[in-house]
Amino acid sequence: GVLAFGFWGEIFCYDIYRLYRLLCLWRKGMMRLTAASIGAAILSTIEPSSSFARPSFGIGANGRSSSSNGVGDGVTSTCSLPSRGGETLSMSTATDSEVVTVSTSPIEGMRPGTSGLRKKTTVWEMTENYVENFIQSLIDTAMESNGGKMLDTVVVAGDGRYYNNDAIQTIARVLAANGVSNIWIPQDGIMSTPAVSAVIRRRTADGSGEDGQGVAQGGIVLTASHNPGGPEEDFGIKYNEGLGQPAGEEFTETLYEKTLEIKSYRTLNSDGIDLSAPVGTEYQLTPTSKVTLIDPFENYLDALKSCFDFDGLKQFTSRPDFRMLFDGMHGAGSKFARRVLVDELGMPESALMRCDPLPDFGGCHPDPNLTYASELVKRMGLRADGSADDSVDASSLPVLGAANDGDGDRNLIAGAGFFVTPSDSMALICDNYDAIPQFASKGGLNGVARSMPSSAALDVVAEARGIPCFVTPTGWKFFGNLMSSKESFDGKDYGPFLCGEESFGTGSDHVREKDGLWAVLAWMSILSKANEGVGEGEPLTSVREIVTRHWAKYGRHFYCRYDYEGVESESANAVMDFIRSSFVGSDSGTFEANEAGIRLVGAEEFSYEDPVDGSRTSKQGLILNFELASGDPARVVFRLSGTGSSGATIRMYLERYEKDSSRHDMSAPVALKELADVALKLVKMEETTTRNAPTVIT
Length: 698
Fold this sequence. Notes:
Blueprint: H1 2-28, H2 35-43, E1 75-82, E2 88-95, E3 98-103, E4 117-120, H3 121-126, H4 130-145, E5 153-158, H5 164-177, E6 182-186, H6 193-202, E7 218-222, E8 234-240, H7 249-259, E9 264-269, E10 282-286, E11 289-294, H8 298-305, H9 310-317, E12 324-327, H10 333-344, E13 352-353, H11 374-379, E14 400-404, E15 411-415, E16 418-420, H12 422-431, H13 437-440, E17 447-451, H14 457-465, E18 469-472, H15 477-483, H16 485-489, E19 497-501, E20 505-508, H17 516-530, H18 543-554, E21 556-567, H19 569-582, E22 599-605, E23 608-609, E24 616-617, E25 622-627, E26 633-640, E27 648-658, H20 668-671, H21 673-683, H22 685-689, E28 696-697
Parallel strand pairs: 5-6, 5-7, 6-11, 12-13, 12-14, 17-18, 17-19
Antiparallel strand pairs: 1-2, 3-9, 4-8, 7-8, 10-11, 14-15, 15-16, 19-20, 21-27, 21-28, 22-25, 23-24, 25-26, 26-27
Helix pairs in contact: 1-2, 4-5, 4-7, 6-8, 9-17, 12-14
């Protein structure tokens, strides 16, 4: 009896709420309330599915009415209802798909950061017209950059976090009302960020295509990347332009200006979209605009297969002495990892952990670092600081460990009892390019790049190999121009191209985003190459051996990052202002060495002139340069992060070079502790922020 009351009571309360939302929308002028719209809402509760899923009939996922208003213009869309027996009933509903112009006002705070606009989910969900204002401003900016012509084809996809599908419904209506002809949405609405880039670059009207043949003119990506998800956590939207690259600063600044001027937006009164319908399902929202559900895997898988020898990798990973553990962190990348590692390469399900996308990422923080990927770190025989746990038998551990973040573009790489820093990972991939068919087939790399805060490990390898190396501000959009130099500007061709950031982002020019799974396959390829000729029963060459040999050849760049999260913006800016006024441009001769022999020798503020289009970017980080007692160089970089949703994050990046191989076995946090103490004291971190320790050390 209690169960029955709970079941029907939940249904009754839920649908009273739905009818309330209908009335609210009617009062706003968003729809005409009719018996059909009310009846559709009530009818949707008569046959609840056994899984308690709410059928979509006449009501969009965001609560807006999508029923016919009784006029009708012959446009139809398919709607599916789950029946009690589990079968799917296909229904066709007529709608007039009336374009509605809604008055609105500017909403402050919509300036995109380094990777789109990120706010607390409640801001997006509860602030009236928030999504609509931003998307209308975005599509107006995109049309302006397209010579005043509305875009023909746009991809809309997200990382599956809470509010993903509700926002997709809203965005589809705004795009259709503005005249976008083709709106491509992946089945279930979930796609990793690099997969979206692959669709833009490859997908033709028929589906598959080669790199550069894609017809989509842009992509709207719903993600807050490595930030937590959930009703009280983070949500974000960013835009990728026609080559699959994140929108540049000129685009995002124009978008922001439009958010400050907006007076109205266009939307539809149309049927909701069943995102779980079969691939190929089409929804004709207006006579000239339709939504097509596309295969989320096809184009991305084609891109990866153009880079790697899948047959060779399958043979290597089938060795009885090879085991791998991949942590999907319940993000969008997890379903792509299953498709590639299990379905394509034949690895067992036991190789995967947390590989089911969840709207709150299972309550975890989906950032693949030593702190938030703690279970993977432990199972790889590592301590929290990345050093080996000597109490664990290394022979019992997986050969390779890896993780993705929320939207699948970041990666963590570890071997048995050995953590690989992102900066070292980039340098190793560069030095072992011959193990990766994408690079080897074209005679090597024609260009590499890193973000300024990343360590100089990549620079050393690039110089030794004669490869042009660029240092850019943080933000993948700065790599986009370099990768597309020839394609967009008829400039020098830097492809094949490798790039990355210290924040666990690595990628190449197969797409125009960082790509976590690409980095994992690159490391699998390096391991495979290193173990050619190693017979069954012989010990495999390990990740540790590959990296330590690299250090012996090039020296080690000890590196780690301190994150001070959620700092009051005023205090964070005060720290940066103090460094700028006290050290930048000052006479380095006035600073004496401390008792450990560490001496400040100079300071600068990083700025960047793009070698492709000549644009300039300033105030991209403050650098304190030091000299150690040994005479080796060291540096500390301070930067405010642009990827948070509230407050500010101060990032402090620490790096010191060590040529002496006898010292290479120290853990990075230990090797850098004295340098960190000196820097924190100099900049008065605790005095200014009241923080006596970082939130996270990576």
